[in-house]
What does this fold into?
Amino acid sequence: MKDKNVEQKKGPAGKKTAELEPLEPEDARRTETAVTTEAPAEVAPPEEKERRFRDSNLPPHFIERRKHPRIQKEPPPPPAPPRFEDYGPIIGKPELDEIRFLARHLQGKTVKMVNSTAVGGGVAEILNRLIPLMNELEVPTRWEVITGGNDFYEVTKGFHNALHGGDYNLTQQITDLFMSYNEQNRQRMQFNEDLVVIHDPQPVGLVRSKADTQARWIWRCHIDLSNPHSGVWDFLKPMVEQYDSAIFSAPAFTRQLAVPQYLFYPSIDPLSEKNKSLEESFVNKVCDDFGIDRSRPILCQISRFDRLKDPVGVIESYKLVKKYVDCQLVLAGGGATDDPEGAVVLQEVMDAAGDDPDVIILNLPPWSALEINALQRASTIIIQKSLKEGFGLTVTEGLWKEKPVVAGAVGGIPSQIVHKLTGVLVHSVEGCAYQIRYLLTHPEFATQLGKNGREHAKENFLITVNLKRWLLLFQILLGMAKPSKTI
Ligand code: UDP
It folds into this structure.
């Protein structure tokens, strides 16, 4: 996928990318799925664990931890939210000042953001970080959540799957129900702000209030619309086209629309538990808890146990590499307990791992952000060999941690990985194995990819970049700034 908003030739370091440039729709497919939140399961029955380690030369303490990984049973207390100032050491003072400058021009302007859930899911996670930062910068931003019965959420879930290309039987009754819940919420809400941002399809019908307001209205679409169910999209599209603009997460995810479209990449928070820098002693402790040997190369894929993440393909690639280089593979995911398909995939993964004691499979609870952070930091190479993907935040997390990332060329991944510059794109088990082997035997090249990857993530995929884009877009929509290819 060619992404014209990402500098691909000269490299990411030191090069400003074009921002807020309207997008052209492109064809691509992906599957977006939610992060699971189930409790951890026993990874393998005891006799299977014994079989794996019977002929192993591993030191006993690694064997013991691989059989019984020390997994955190309780969620840790939530950390204090970061302040805007805290991002200074990461992005630098000039960047902080630039964001403050943009915000200062918007002082007195008010914003409302509306979505369909306050907790759970990526959108709520982003808003939980973004909105306090906007308020701290004195751009008063209110967050409201629409309400609805189970029948509404069943419909919106059906829409979500249909917009990803699934089958759906759209009836008059369904569209009436969708509109009546939108109407109830619309009657309950007031829109006195200067800017109204509606996230995703669930509250899209609130735009009926636009005619009664002076506000500029923005539709922020977090999902991939490249291959939608035509009936559902034909129903939603006339509402989307009443907005002043629409925002998508990748060039490949857009539709042809009569309103300007903008590219806002998803973002990670460099100060979150998942991404903040860690003491080396903590990284060592996590490896010790899971029986991971830091003296040998570590390949790692963090993903839900889902076939589209191709964990079995990762094991096949690892096995090809292992013939030449002594390494370990860590496959860490979550939610395979309650999700029947997750449990089946986990079993497939264990079967594929067979007797190999150097394949470490971890089924982690949802409160494992620090552990995932440590696993990513301990990794020699981060793999994300997806067959279909949303944006692929695990790739972003790996790039941010300055790791060489080997990933499938699907969904939003090519926006993040410029092949052989910020990481490596692969299309097959053999290709994945070849690239891993190459990186393991060319550590200087691997280090350079990691450095470039971090710069690329810093420039494009941090929450501060996202904040800056919002402030710029608000200025453009309020007529305070002109869109430009070189902003
Ligand atoms: N993740 C997690 N625990 C797991 C597996 C994944 O916290 O067991 C996180 C991972 O670090 C990333 C997100 O869930 O932040 C997955 O996002 P991504 O876009 O890679 O894939 P999705 O699961 O949304 O398809």
Notes: Residues 459 and 465 are 7 Å apart (CA to CA). Residues 33, 35, 274, 302-304, 333-334, 364, 368, 372, 390-394, 397 surround uridine-5'-diphosphate (CB under 6 Å). The longest strand covers residues 328-334. The longest helix spans residues 443-460.
